[in-house]
Amino acid sequence: MVATAAGLSTLALAPGSGLASSHREAPLIANDPQADNTDLYAFVSPDDADSVTLIANWLPFQEPGGGPNFYPFAENTRHEIHIDNNADAKADITYRWTFTTAYKSKDTFLYATGPVTSLDDPTLNVTQTYKLEEIKGDATRVLVDGGKVAPSHVGVGSMPNYAALRDQAVVDTQEVTGKSFAGQADDPFFLDLRVFDLLYGGNLKEVGSDTLDGFNVNTLALQVKKSDLAAAGDSAASPIVGVWSTTSRPATRLTAADGTQTFSGDFVQVSRLGSPLVNEVVVPLQFKDAFNASLPEGDAQFLPKVEDPEVPKLIEAVYKIPAPKTPRADLVSVFLTGVEGLNKPANGTPSEMLRLNMSIPAAGEGNRLGVIGGDKAGFPNGRRLSDDVVDIALQVIEGELVGAANDLGDAVNNNDVRFGDAFPYVALPHAGSKVRPGSLGNSQVQGLAVSGGAPVGAVGTGAGGTAPGTSSPAVPLAIALAGATLVAAGLVVRKRALI
User: Where are the domains of the chain?
Assistant: First the structure.
């Protein structure tokens, strides 16, 4: 509800009007991108076998050069990761982050007024700090107080050594043994979003391009001991935990004529995320906003959409690949109960969330297809940064677990930049100073003509730049033909014999 009177605008949020999460997949999320919880990850830490790493991202599609305000975490907002360690679909542990923004000067438009080499530099004009709390029933402990947020990566002129700023934002937690990080990062989700254009253009011509290449997100990462997550502190007896994330806003926001805002009322959940792609492609439009405002304990209402999903019907209509028979008990196990013998707890309440069996150790190299690729440490047993959840989801939805073996995928098999080997594992954010493909200026073109060089992302990389001395696009013909040949040969998206 929006109303105006006496110079005040009132925005009220009711529980039934929740906003969306996961890269703008529900109708209302465009109105509140700071609250958009894009992806959730939970995995046994590869460099610390006794710990689990939880990662949640917010505010999608961050163009690195999007100044002057760039991309702060939302204030007056609860960013939360929830843990269910007894399979009743209710949170036994909640980790809550809240943020505060400060300005050294409001007499400038600059985010950074000079080179920034430390999070304490006076030249870092806009800063954020956070409080991280652990909530168990009526007991609350502060794990981080006054934690410093790694800033948006304005560019190399302002932040010549961003990796050092990232390192300064990694802190040890209080009360429990662990680590915490909050700040900007490369968006670790990799996929070709043209699946929404009638499943990759209707003839597979729209595959192989990582839509999120070059974009950033805001990341919260927490590493804690397995015993801190398990019921009664016993990860050997109770190794399976459910994980989901949410965003909550105050019910009412008042905006005055001078732009100042005040907040009141109870906090209302406006975003929810567990397993990837559920609200994107399983839940239909009429239920998307309701899903984001709902609690896992009420997920029985979404059961019919899981048992009879839309995607296989679309694939059958477009590509004539027969849809698996319904009802889909295999999808119920992946999304609502856990997979038998992998991550299904005994006597659990069906509910949508990531489920992680902490007794399964981290894999060395790992397989991007996770469990269906023979790697039990990957999705749908939790989710790692490198898990190719789009290919996994497509293959499972098309019947991989019920005898219909297939190799469906979007031809984007890994992230655009390499992930880290140590906490927080996410890649550094793209710099605002980075020249994006297709943005080659005239002065740079003239420089190319003189030097014969080729900047990254332009002519020399086949990105469609303009060759010196001509107005014709200079995409290497061999690369273009090779791409066309791969698609024509069915090597990008293909199916094995379906049973």
Answer: 2-402, 442-488
